[in-house]
Amino acid sequence: MSKVREKIKLTSYDELLKVEITDGLKEIDVDKLHDFSNHPFKVSDDEKMEELTESIRERGVLLPILVRKTNDEEYEIISGHRRTHAARLAGIEKVPVIIRELSDDDATIVMVDSNIQREEILPSEKAYAFQMKLEAIQHKGIKGEESREVVGEANGLSGRQVSRYIKLTNLLPELLEMVDEKKIAIKLAVEIAELSESEQQEILDYFNLGYKVSLEQVKAIKNKEKSTDIIERSEEKTQQSAKVTISRKKLKQYFPENYTKAEMENIIYQLLEKWKSDGYDI
């Protein structure tokens, strides 16, 4: 550990909760709790939320919500956005909270650490969470590559891997959504994120038209080749490689032995045209 990191105390979520349950525990109106500013983790009304809502409806909120006071008896949620949402859905008016005094940077670090360990985290959630935590750590004096290493430590990632995730925040929203939906691999998405907005829009247009975009194509665009030329050239190559070949041996049973290849092809095309004109959809 560097001397800089030894001097800088990073408050962890575990440290905050290593207190007696009565220390700072209060019952707060759920309407006084507000989401963390720019909270990067999605709270969706999915099947798991239904299960959590039903559990809270039956047993209440068992794990207190971690909050910090803002003003006028209002509170910002640091950890517990899903529980808070489920409590609202269940019609719970008051929830248990632990109130802590935290700076903006400490609150951001704890908010990220308390959410990033969930089983199902989308690439977009990781990207924005890592970006927020990185900025908070840098504000506390840890700079450069070391700050990325600190972010990655809690998740078993290298500083380089953290940087790659953060690059995803430069993607157009539609492309980032495709990454979350596993329509674009993260490795390819990182390369696309380094393109200009107009170049990303061109790639998005081609994705929407059903074309595939490869890593090599994106790298070629980064080298200032025109994206339309590269993708169209690739499409031509794909079409050429998709041609259909029928062996001469199979065709012999349908044509006299003295027919040339050109004559056989000509008859096949004539038959296909007649088939099409007769109303058969090929």
Offer a concise description of the structure:
The protein has 282 residues and is of the alpha/beta class. It is built from 15 helices and 5 strands.
Q: What do we call the CATH topology of the largest domain? A: Arc Repressor Mutant, subunit A
Strand content: 5-15%
Second CATH tier, the architecture of the largest domain: Orthogonal Bundle
CATH class of the largest domain: Mainly Alpha
Secondary structure: number of strands: 5
Quote the average pLDDT: 83
InterPro entries: Chromosome_partition/occlusion, ParB/RepB/Spo0J, ParB/Sulfiredoxin_sf, ParB_N
Protein name: ParB/RepB/Spo0J family partition protein
Domain ParB-like N-terminal: 26-116
Pfam families: ParB_N
Give a structural overview.
This protein is an alpha/beta fold. The protein folds into three domains: 13-101, Alpha-Beta Complex (Conserved hypothetical protein from pyrococcus furiosus pfu- 392566-001, ParB domain), CATH 3.90.1530.30; 112-239, Arc Repressor Mutant, subunit A (Orthogonal Bundle), CATH 1.10.10; 248-277, no CATH class. Helices cover 54% and strands 8% of the residues. It contains 15 helices and five strands. It has a five-stranded mixed beta sheet with strand order 1-5-3-4-2. Helix 5 packs antiparallel against helix 6 and helix 7 crosses helix 8 (159-167). The relative contact order is 0.08. Residues 19-23 have low confidence and may be disordered.
